[in-house]
Amino acid sequence: MPNKDKHHLLSLVPGVDSIWELAKKNKDFNKIPEKVIKASIRHILANIRNKILGKNKLHNNKKENSKSEILIKVLKHAKTTISPKLVPVINATGIVLHTNLGRAVLCKDAIDNIIRIAFNYSNLEFNIAKGKRGIRYNAVEELICELTGAEAAMAVNNNAGAVLLCLDTLASKKEVIISRGELVEIGGSFRIPDVMEKSGSILKEVGTTNRTHIQDYEKAITPDTGLFLKVHTSNYKIQGFTSSVPLSDLVSLGKDKNIPVMEDLGSGTLINLSKYKLGKEPTVLEVLASKPDIITFSSDKLLGGPQAGIILGNKSLLKKIKANPLTRALRIDKLTLAALESTLNIYRDENKAIKKIPCLNMLTKSFKETAKISEKMLDHLKNKITDKRVAEFECVDLSSLAGGGALPELSLPSRCVAVNPILISLAELEKKMRLNKPSIIGRIDNNRFIIDPRTLKKEQEDIVLNALEKILNKTKIE
Ligand SMILES: *Cc1c(COP(=O)(O)O)cnc(C)c1O
Predict the structure, then answer these.
(1) Which atom of ligand 1 is nearest to the CA of 190?
(2) Of 468, 389, 404, whose CA–CA distance to 92 is shortest?
(3) Measured distance CA(440)–CA(434) in Å, rounded
(4) 99 alpha carbon to ligand 1 midpoint, in Å?
(5) What is the domain extent for residue 56?
(6) Do the domain assignments include residue 296?
(7) For 64-104, what is each residue's pLDDT tens digit?
């Protein structure tokens, strides 16, 4: 297209002010800040100009560039700009502690307490009885000690922070002896060797990937040894010809040589999960019985609380950890603290915990319960989408996962709904469910779209059904 024509088309593009005058009069724009509307106008107009400049052929784009069309585009753009970016999604994957989807869903008590504390001033760092400055960790320290039998405890931003803080306090510029089989990477780039480097401690690996013996630790001790570290390899399992040193043996050696022992438990649980057929994850209580000096674990994995890292153990070491200036950088926020206290409080009654804490509730959901939900959903779908050329539905027996690097070998039998779309592709169905409002995340298995009821809340079942119906029926053959 000749430049002359381009110049002519460009001269027809309305100015920012003329669109702004229209927007001001239109009530759809009432709740959108002026700044946002003007930025959207500039954005849309720039797009139109760029399109004209890039064009080779002249064609009539009068309608597309009419003021009313532009206004529609501006409204859409402005609404997208101000819409929240962090949004709830429906997790139909069956992965209970899905790290990408925010790990643990909080229990009602925790949410109520967050609101109560957020809405008011609180005694976060104020001792009401004494009328002077108080300590942030007091809100949960006693409770953690009561539930685990630990001497002392604190909570920080997350478990990665807890490990970093402990290493920095106990072993900065010193050697930390760890088994080669425990140099793990947790999803999201948490690698034990990297955290160790950041803490200024020196990694001293002993043993081999599959076998490490107590003599390996003993031989590695030098005057520079600051700590024995054990890491619970929660997200994988080495099988076959393996041997690792029991924590209690390492503790004996540590006592003998005056070297503290720390275990990074990763996920930590306060409940004996084997009682609910959920594998053999050692409880925090059981691990403490071996008397390590320090244990750390996440609050938003099997515990089912907010994102936090819990440190517990020996009182004198905890005193040092609390006094480390790094604590200030890793400190737990008051809303998290509120949620953590309420979550821990529920653990005083195990039955209540199973019922009220969403992750425990989902993990203990029986196969029978999943079957009941899936069969009901299947009936509904078969009634609503009767044209066999649109999609096929059936129930399939699969397994859900705990996720979050916890209980890697555990498979939880779950009856799921499997959708086999015929008119649209599987990829298209997955995408449309994902882009639905609210977004619905399922999984693909054996060329079918799978809805696992384990991670669905009751009120979400209908939302999923309606979305499937809407998406699939749109493709109906007339
Ligand atoms: C998950 C995990 C971490 C990291 O915990 P965050 O709370 O996510 O920071 C560290 N160590 C182990 C063994 C873990 O499983």
Answers:
(1) 4
(2) 468
(3) 5
(4) 11
(5) 3-82
(6) yes
(7) 679 999 999 999 999 999 999 999 999 999 999 999 999 99
